[in-house]
Design goal:
heterodimer, A: 81 residues, mainly beta, globular, B: alpha+beta, five-stranded mixed beta sheet
């Protein structure tokens, strides 16, 4: 697994309701379109709730994590073709 | 009638066991390898003419198509059903790769069949976060790499992990935490527990036991009286206690026998054809025994007739055997002592009472030559595939090898049966 602790921007659709859907992310000035969200789940780290998204672009599987306390995103590449 | 509950032995909640169950595995692999089949009701059938439905896609299951149906029955349920002939090599290859992926999370992976495995994650949590995260990682990676879905169950033991994975199908993930297990077991129907089959379940139902809660309250001495030591096991299962640990392939108990059986394309009466088949089965048994470095002292021949009646006969040999020719001669000797009453539908050859066998070249020139020939032939078959070098008598035989993935199939070791 490869950690990507770099500047990250995520394009998200909010709604309907309190639903959050990442549609693209920009990593090191390289924009990746989210092709599929394979899994979504929540966990808790102390007081903070985090939403985990497993997403694929055309060549890799990533884990995008949205921290509902700090309102920020982090990303980890899980697997590449 | 209400009985007093037997004291509950504490559930060991220190372990974290994950069960992975691939959803409609054969059908999902077929749909991935042929995009035209995606979203279609399909059923995978054996390659044999007389085979049944091995598995059906979820689209076909919606029409009522089930494993074990004949082609006719399945097509009655779903006229637009597409029947796909099983590609066992593809399934075992994908399964082997999935099992390798699971070992990224723990070395304690127990492959329970071609499409199921248990993982002991107890020591892996600090490295990967939570069991839930590992479950989702496994699901996402399998979907990403192979395009197929699986159901995951996480619980403190194998019994409950298996139960959890059955809860949400397809593509689910269910966690049973230790605190919620007594409430869960109270209303759980008996037949949902792995290990309580139709017959045992019906027997318990006759005693007024339908749920695990009722079984917990049933007097243990009555269970023991009826089922012997199984009574204790039934009570533990009803309490959600599963004693078995996750045993990886390399630590599993040594095999007790090596065998092959096949349902013939058509019922055979001709002795020549039957013995040719026996030769092929003996060759397969011998090759696997030599690969697994075992030799056996007892050879068993199984015959099933056209009316599905059948029998097995075994004979102890003077020495431990693993040469195909020796196994064939022993099986032939048993066959010669029998008077076959009907055409034969199925034949099987098994080697048992095994012991570890190392290759030792005989001193006598003729035997030495034979042993060297076997070593050379095995190395060609191991390198270029089974049945590359075969006895001349089998050249004309059309369907060689095993066409079924045995429930005992494992990705490595002597249980790694190479299917056609």
């Amino acid at each position: 697994m490869q950690s990507a602790d770099t500047s990250l921007r995520v394009g998200v659709i909010h709604g309907p309701g309190n639903r959050i859907t990442p549609v693209w992310f920009d990593l090191n000035r390289c924009k990746h379109s989210v092709r599929e969200i394979t899994n979504v789940w929540r966990d808790r780290q102390g007081e903070t709730v985090r939403i985990h998204f497993h997403v694929t672009d055309d060549g890799a599987l990533y884990e995008l994590v949205y921290d509902l306390g700090a309102l920020n995103w982090s990303l980890e590449q899980l697997e590449a073709l | 009638m209400l009985w007093k509950k037997e004291p509950i032995v504490a559930l060991d909640s220190s372990r974290v066991i994950l069960h992975v169950d691939m959803n409609a595995f054969f059908a999902a692999v077929e749909q991935q390898s042929n995009p035209a089949l995606r979203g279609q009701p399909i059923a995978v059938t054996g390659s044999e003419k007389r085979s049944i439905i091995l598995t059906a896609s979820y689209e076909a299951r919606a029409f009522g198509v089930k494993t074990g149906m004949t082609h006719y029955e399945a097509l009655q349920c779903c006229p637009q059903l597409r029947l796909v002939s099983a590609n066992n090599r593809l399934y075992t290859d994908i399964s082997t790769r999935i099992m390798a992926l699971l070992r990224d999370y723990t070395p304690l992976v127990e492959v329970s069949s071609v499409d199921e495995a248990f993982l002991d994650l107890t020591g892996s949590l600090r490295l990967f976060g939570s069991a839930e995260r590992i479950g989702y990682l496994i699901k996402s990676r399998i979907k990403f790499r192979f395009g197929i879905t699986c159901s995951v169950g996480i619980a403190p033991n194998k019994l409950l992990a298996k139960l959890a994975s059955e809860r949400r199908k397809p593509d689910g993930l269910t966690i049973f935490r230790a605190g919620e297990i007594p409430r869960l077991m109270e209303s759980l129907p008996l037949q949902e527990l792995c290990g309580i089959g139709r017959r045992l379940g019906a027997g318990l139902n006759r005693r007024g036991i339908f749920t695990c809660g009722q079984l917990q309250r049933y007097p243990l001495h009555l269970l023991r009286k009826q089922y012997g030591v199984v009574g204790d096991k039934l009570l533990a299962m009803a309490q959600g206690i599963g004693s078995g640990s996750v045993i990886p392939c390399e630590q599993s108990a040594p095999i007790k026998s090596v065998g092959h059986s096949r349902t013939l394309r058509e019922d055979l009466s001709d002795r020549e054809a039957i013995t040719a088949f026996l030769l092929q089965l003996s060759d397969m048994v011998g090759l696997r025994a030599r690969r697994g470095q075992v030799a056996g002292r007892v050879v068993t021949l199984t015959v099933r007739y056209a009316d599905l009646s059948g029998f097995s006969r075994q004979q102890a040999q003077g020495d431990y055997l693993n040469q195909s020719a020796d196994i064939y001669q022993a099986a032939l000797k048993i066959l010669d002592q029998l008077a076959l009453e009907q055409p034969v539908r199925l034949l099987g050859v098994r080697l048992s009472q095994l012991r570890h066998a190392v290759v030792q070249l005989p001193l006598l020139p003729q035997e030495r030559k034979q042993a060297l020939l076997t070593i050379a032939s095995d190395s060609v078959n191991n390198r270029h595939g089974d049945f590359t070098l075969i006895p001349g008598r089998l050249l004309e035989q059309k369907d060689k090898g095993s066409h079924v993935i045995s429930p005992a199939w494992r990705p490595e070791g002597v249980r790694n049966l190479r299917v056609q």
